[in-house]
Amino acid sequence: MAACMSENGSERKLEFFLKVPFPSEREATIALQSLSPDPEPRKGGITKNLDLSGQTLSVRWTADEARILRVSVSSFLDHLSLVMETMDAFGPPVSQ
């Protein structure tokens, strides 16, 4: 995890990075597909990008305000926790 403040022209943006390792590439893909459909509810001030590299899900947020960033990251972590608990409860994914 990492957080930093960067300047984009005259704008100051907050950035937060999160990398989540999974036991398999299939589980990482399931998590990505489960978490991707949820766009940010607010139409400005924050962006969230999800990317998959092997077994690792990477998430990058960029926000105008710390409060908006905190709410978005907290909500994402709640959803991620639910996805991981669900995968754990049903066992490893079956190959298709």
Element layout with pairings:
Elements: E1 2-8, E2 11-21, H1 25-35, E3 46-53, E4 56-63, H2 66-90
Antiparallel strand pairs: 1-2, 2-4, 3-4
Helix pairs in contact: 1-2
Provide structural commentary:
It is a single chain. The protein has helices at residues 25-35, 66-90; strands spanning 2-8, 11-21, 46-53, 56-63. The protein contains two helices and four strands; from the N terminus they run E-E-H-E-E-H. The chain is elongated, with a radius of gyration of 15 Å. The protein has a four-stranded antiparallel beta sheet. By secondary structure, the chain is α+β, with helices and mostly antiparallel strands. It has one domain (14-90): 2-Layer Sandwich (TATA-Binding Protein), CATH 3.30.310.50. It is found in: Cytoplasm; Nucleus. One of its GO terms (biological process) is tRNA processing. Component of the EKC/KEOPS complex composed of at least GON7, TP53RK, TPRKB, OSGEP and LAGE3; the whole complex dimerizes. It comes from Onychostoma macrolepis. Pfam families: Pcc1.
